[in-house]
Amino acid sequence: MNIIILGAGQVGTSLAELLAIENNDVTVVDLDRTNLQRLQDRLDIRTVNGHASNPDVLNQAGLEEADMLIAATHQDDTNIVACQLAQIMHKTPTKIARVRSQSYLNHPELFDRQQNTDAIPINVLISPETLVKNYILQLINYPGSLQVVDFSEGKVRLVAIRAHSGGMIVGKKIREIKQHLPDGVHHRIVAIYRRDEIVIPTGNVTIQVGDEVFFLAEPFNIPKIVQELRRDKLRPSRNIMIAGGGNIGFNLAKELEKEHQVKIIDHNMTQARKISEQLEQAIVIRGDVSDKSLLIEENIDEIDLFLALTNSDEANIISGMLAKKLGVRRVIALVNNQSYVDLIQLNSIDVAISADQITTSRLLHYMRQGDTVKAFTLRRGAAEAMEVIVHGSENSSEIIGKTIGEIQWPTSITIGCIVRENEVLFSHRDLTIEAEDHVILFLNDPSQAAEITELFTPKEKRSWF
């Protein structure tokens, strides 16, 4: 694909890295020559220095030949205008815009071209703050989880959990786990990471303390499975403290205050006063999130969950580690600098999340050719989970009518389950694939995604590979 990315910030850079590896023709536009030079030094891409909503700059970037425009600058207005220009000048097929302002997001009719042909011509609207908020809510709904991803409109979920000493299935082989779960609790372990190395989850693999276990299950069964992997009795997070009253922190507090006891801390007096007027039950505190005396005064030892969501990675790390030391059961911190992540997850912060990685994952399936309806990066890009629809017939497809055990799959994948209409069928060798099945799979080598796409595509439609 020929893809133009506007903006060489963290989101634009993450996308460029991902797309360049997969042999797309990528061009990045940015005003900062230094950022562009850094990208060009390590990636096989084109760069153009200039303003992202300048028609001449867009033409210089090759807009006429582009299959996709991703407007990911820090300025909403620039992103929106660039998409409008792309439609007017060359009718670019797919236009994706990053939009952060709540004023735009509160008026979806501005972007709904199905209802209004005069609406702003954006195919996909991305709000990083909303994506992060929803991501955190999923982690709150499943205490102890490291990552939660929905597939097939929520019929099945992929959950990552760390195995703890004392968990009933720790020390058990995967094929023995079923007998330790209640009747009717079905699942499929699709990957295990052990000290940053992938362990292929065959029946003879034994779960060890510290393993990061990825499993697929239907939502109502997930708490039962998680409980077996943990040594402690998991309970919902009733008392929650949020560090940072920006868009993410405020919107989370608004969502959580109805059913949780919420405190939110922000250092800015104006911001603290503004959000206190808009929140109904949450307590708003003006202060420094890394002030030990303040945290103790606010009974930090009674807090079940501490969310570090300021605009500063360093403040989030320090406040998160301090909160854990002062007795908080669980800490989730927003950390975009990937060089910090491995270090801090070994030092008391339970989950480090990246807005850039979450945003990249939200966009990933739009980059995939064929009928990939969802793709999500896992472990900061080291692996990928995909949902692909099977099209064709037994005559045109290499997989329809065959059992999972008969198909020559790429070496790095594990088939998790098939969603057939409203039924979830967990993978086994004798399960036959049918047309229109939704196949959920785990890919521990994302570079093999193109092989998956080709395998799922009917023969008559492969001319574009």
From TrEMBL:
Matching InterPro entries: K_uptake_TrkA, NAD(P)-bd_dom_sf, RCK_C, RCK_C_sf, RCK_N, Trk_Ktr_HKT_K-transport
Domain RCK N-terminal: 1-120, 237-353
One GO molecular-function entry: potassium ion transmembrane transporter activity
Coiled coil: none
Domain RCK C-terminal: 146-231, 373-458
Entry keyword NAD: yes
Domain of life: Bacteria
GO cellular component: plasma membrane
Signal peptide annotation: none
Annotated keywords: Ion transport, NAD, Potassium, Potassium transport, Transport
PANTHER family to which the protein is assigned, alphabetical: POTASSIUM CHANNEL PROTEIN 2-RELATED-RELATED (PTHR43833), TRK SYSTEM POTASSIUM UPTAKE PROTEIN TRKA (PTHR43833:SF5)
Protein's UniProt name: Trk system potassium uptake protein TrkA
UniProt organism field: Hydrogenovibrio crunogenus
